[in-house]
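re: ur question from earlier - yeah i can do the single chain one, its not a big deal. heres the input i used so u can compare w yours
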Amino acid sequence: MSNLKQIMKIGIAEMGIVKGSEVIRTSGLGSCVGVVVYDEEKRIAGMVHVMLPDSGLAKDGQLNKAKFADTAIKELIDQIVRNGGRRQYLKAKLAGGSQMFQFNSTNEMMRIGPRNVEAVLQQLDKLQIRVLGSDVGGNKGRTIEFSPENSLLNIKIVNQGVIII
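and the output i got, formated as tokens:
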């Protein structure tokens, strides 16, 4: 992962936009999903660190759009377009959605990682954004880094090394 370029760090339930040679990174992806949407030719990308699948889980009407898959993807796309990205050329890559803890329960609520991945993919499909690569599931934490300069997603997997998609 690069240390020489300007890196924007995205925290849990946050999103951001980078252009050109800037790099965007999020770490601590366990059950959360890191989603990158980008316009390759315009060299603009956005990243969101999705924590939960559904904004119906928001407390007291205080809605952080970046926190939930059903609101984060649309908001990210809107921000990219406002910053010069072209809606019809947007593509996506994603990582995360691990099942970090093993439960004996078959309770659907405990499948947060897989449910996050399903919700993200459903939103990308609904908004007609093609997914060009993903590294999801398993039970390992991940850090991801993306540069709109080369459209590569570097995924550092805890105790497993780095893969690039």
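The chain has two helices and ten strands. not sure if urs matches, ping me
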